[in-house]
Amino acid sequence: MSCPPTIGPAPGQRLGTRLFESSNEMLLETTRGLAGYWASALRRGATPWSLMEDAVAFWGHATRRDTPQWHSPHEIVLDTPIARLRDFSAGSTDPVVPTLVLPPQAGHDSCIVDYSPEQSQMKVIRAAGLTRAYSADWKGATRETAGTTVDAYLDFIEACIGRIGGPVNLIGDCQGGWLATIYAALHPEDVHTLTIAGAPIDFQAGDAVIHDYVRWFDQAPDMGFYRWVVQRGGGVLRGDHMLNGFILIKPENELAKHMQLLSNLHDARHLERHRHFETWFKHTQDISGAFYLWIVEHLFARNSLVRGELEIGGRIVDLEQIACPINLLAGAGDHITPPEQVFALANHVSTSPADITARTTQGGHLGLFMGGEALRGHWPPILAAIAERSSTLSPARAERCARAETPRVRRPIPAP
Q1: Is the pTM here over 0.70, yes or no?
Q2: SS3 of the chain
Q3: Mean pLDDT of 3-14
Q4: Residue 186 lies in a domain
Q5: Given 7, 121, 149, 190, which residue has the most CB atoms within 10 angstroms?
């Protein structure tokens, strides 16, 4: 396995530069955090005893771990060993095209799409008039499901659409975005509109930090490093390994978060926001080892999706089969998936340019799914345009949506 040659410094040199820059940022964040804390302590007239109490409080807030929760009313209408389908429609029978959300699947809970009562992608979807709203909920891999492949996840999506009644407005966040794109290329008849946010389509476009790590470890033959990681996890990619990897990509962000915690120890609203984020971010899920190795080899390393070389179930994934309206959302500060990786989809589909919308937030990766800027300023116009296209159903489509067909799965979803 090898990545295409790059112009410029070797991966090791680039990594060294990034680590040096991160070290400088960490020093700066530490200085800011300590200065902010001491300024606050002086204003409060802190005593040695209160400083000790602050230290205990800081440690408690920094290490507290709760279980993530979904916050909007819904019910589980399909449950398989690898994922669930959650129905947020609240009994709606509105004649509107159903909307199916595929959340990220990168070692964290899917509830990021319903992150909090105030920050919920599912609520914004319903508020736009897309009242028949559903979300996948990926389950953490176990030893029994460690061999789950991409075929099984595509089958699950097909089962969901069969259960809902399609075609659907398919929305994919991050990993859910490239999975939605692959599904749309294989089953264009099932997709009314396609929307992806922070989803890598051209995995080697832009200047993603992860590129340097992939190229560095790629020096080992036969994907040796990645197979070793899966072997160490007993056949799965451990969620805590993924978490540590995300932190190491930008360690200064993790330090800054805790320095802000230190500076705001006596701000109840900040403490609540910190607890809410840590609850989601630090609660990890394992990923199927077979699925992970497939992603690394075929998407990250070979970039097979945009090269037209990706084969699934004996079929080539041809992005030109996608002709439906498309919405692309990227973050200018996204160091996981640069905008170029998301917007690349427009260059490979048959959709008319007039039916492709591209928007860029100022924030980073996670903010695309739960950040205030994205949820208030970018998702509403995207969803309003989708709702306008979805408000009138043909008689045949309305009948199919109403009867909620039983799942139609070509290949069986793995059983435990």
Answers
A1: yes
A2: CCCCCCCCCCHHHHHHHHHHHHHHHHHHHHHHHHHHHHHHHHHHCCCHHHHHHHHHHHHHHHHCCCCCCCCCCCEEEEECCCEEEEECCCCCCCCCCCEEEECCCCCECHHHHHCCCCCCHHHHHHHCCCCCEEEEEECCCCCCCCCCCHHHHHHHHHHHHHHHCCCEEEEEECHHHHHHHHHHHHCHHHEEEEEEECCCCCCCCCCCHHHHHHHHHCCCHHHHHHHHHHHHCCCEECHHHHHHHHHHHCHHHHHHHHHHHHHCCCCHHHHHHHHHHHHHHCCECCEEHHHHHHHHHHHHHCCHHHHCCCEECCEECCHHHCCCCEEEEEECCCCCCCHHHHHHHHHCCCCCHHHEEEEEECCCCCHHHHCHHHHHHHHHHHHHHHHHHHCCCCHHHHHHHHHCCCCCCCCCCCCC
A3: 44
A4: yes
A5: 121
Please give the angle made by the CA atoms of 102, 303 and 191, to the nearest 5 degrees: 35
- The answer to whether position 392 is within a domain reads yes
Specify the pLDDT at position 411.
36
CA distances to 3, 16, 34, 300, 399 from 218, in Å: 8, 17, 39, 11, 51
Token pair, residue 267, equals: 């701000």
pLDDT digits (tens, 9 = 90+) for 202-223: 998 877 655 555 554 444 446 7
- Say which CATH number the domain at 132 has: 3.40.50.1820
Evaluate whether residue 97 is within a structural domain. Answer: yes
- Which residues face 75 on adjacent strands? 87
Q: Does residue 32 fall inside a structural domain? A: no
Q: How many separate domains does the chain show? A: 1
For β-strands 356-361 and 236-237, DSSP reports them as: unpaired
pLDDT value of residue 1? 33
Structural domain including 358 reads: 78-207+288-403
Q: What is the pLDDT of residue 405?
A: 40
